Amino acid sequence: MTTLKVRIYPDPILRKEAAPVEVFDGELEKFIKEMFDVMRKEDGVGLAAPQVGVSKQIAVVSYGGQDYVLINPKVLESSGSERREEGCLSVPGIYEEVERPYRVVVEACNEKGKVERIAAEGFLARAFLHEIDHLRGKLFIDYLSVLKRQIIKKKMRKHWKE
């Protein structure tokens, strides 16, 4: 059983640039398994390490029956554009349309440290970009208007106090 808990905006760790992973070992693999467990328990599609209080460049995504591990990810290419609704485990109850590239090529290490390139489009590309944003201290609400962000921040502060 995991002790990891999803951090809720405006928790400061969600705004911090995550550090690269340098050690690939059994502890990392255990942590990644715990991340998948939390993500599934919370009915998420993806989860980034900062969302569970660890400022490291690790993200997990599960989509289309496949699990993806993105460690120290970089977006190599992006093309097209699509506007679609997004939500986030760290911003519960908020769903807004966000414009993102439709296709991406991402380079990342897997849990063993092997560098892989993954081409994705549509929802999977969106999920990768959403999680990579978390590793840069960026949230999907940053793509919204100032007014919408202020309203969401007010709602989240109330949620945080409860």
Automatic annotation (TrEMBL):
The keyword Protein biosynthesis applies. GO terms for molecular function: metal ion binding; peptide deformylase activity. Fe cation binds at C88, H130, H134. It catalyses: N-terminal N-formyl-L-methionyl-[peptide] + H2O = N-terminal L-methionyl-[peptide] + formate. It is an enzyme of class 3 (hydrolase). Keywords: Hydrolase, Iron, Metal-binding, Protein biosynthesis. GO terms for biological process: translation. Its cofactor is Fe(2+). The active site is at E131. Gene3D superfamilies: Peptide deformylase (3.90.45.10). Its EC number is 3.5.1.88. The keyword Disulfide bond does not apply. CDD domains: Pep_deformylase. Binds 1 Fe(2+) ion. NCBIfam families: pept_deformyl, PRK00150.1-3. HAMAP family: Pep_deformylase. Removes the formyl group from the N-terminal Met of newly synthesized proteins. Requires at least a dipeptide for an efficient rate of reaction. N-terminal L-methionine is a prerequisite for activity but the enzyme has broad specificity at other positions. Belongs to the polypeptide deformylase family. PANTHER family: PEPTIDE DEFORMYLASE. This is Peptide deformylase. The gene is def.
